[in-house]
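ok trying again, last paste got cut off:
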Amino acid sequence: MSERLAVLGLGMMGGSVAGAARSRSVASPVVGWDPNPKACATALANGLVDSIELTAEDAVSKASLVVAACPVTQVVPLLSQLVQDAEPGTLFTDLGSTKLSIVRSMRGVSPAGIEFLGSHPLAGSEKSGPSHADTNLLERKVVALCPDESSTPGSRDRLGKFWAALGARVVFCPAEEHDALLALTSHLPHLLAYLMAGMPEQMHAPFLAGGFRDMTRLAGSSPQLWMGIFGDNREQLLRCSRDFRDKLDQAIQALENPGAESDSLRGLIEKGWAARTTWQTTG
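nice, full thing came through this time. structure:
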């Protein structure tokens, strides 16, 4: 059965999900809401949604599946009242890059007959806004689903089928494990990109080589969005940052003592090269 989909937040990610569901006839109708009137107008004009609702409450009233496509710090404040007034059987999810605090909070506010099951599409871009939405964004990408003890088999199956119909590969993962993994594979790289991008005191554009541009691409992402993610996953990010600091200290020590430590530096470099080669070839 086709879902009636409401997407709350029509930025790049929300617009991509809405547009993919609409273009693939996975959901009908696809209604959207965003506090920014310009985002609403762009999403409607670009055919990402069938209609725009003036309030989040109106959007939810027309939906069987609700996707909160907003910053992680706004998911619980946005949904905590909406779940109270939703029709029984309505399934809520989100797109946030952190899961544990959201899943725990939503478990505490969701009434009987209403389920929240957290999602995280491992896809995206440093660009923002519905004008950058891509209806093929999720094609062959992983979407992590983070059920807890209150999640029913029916909701897992239903939400898994929704994401699979958008072209994604669905992986189920406990929220705590998800946050530990993403701290290393996403949150730390973003933090390092911001720090590296801010290092040169004077930007001599001709000398900003490809390596620097590649390493700092993520620094084009919204600082406000990522401050929320860093704060929400603070403990895991601290753990990964300290591990990285230890590795960097080893490299610095090797560079300071080139004769005695050359094998140490070579070992660090070759270990990184081998690891990247392995995970690139295995997918």
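cool. The longest strand covers residues 27-33. The chain has a mean pLDDT of 94.
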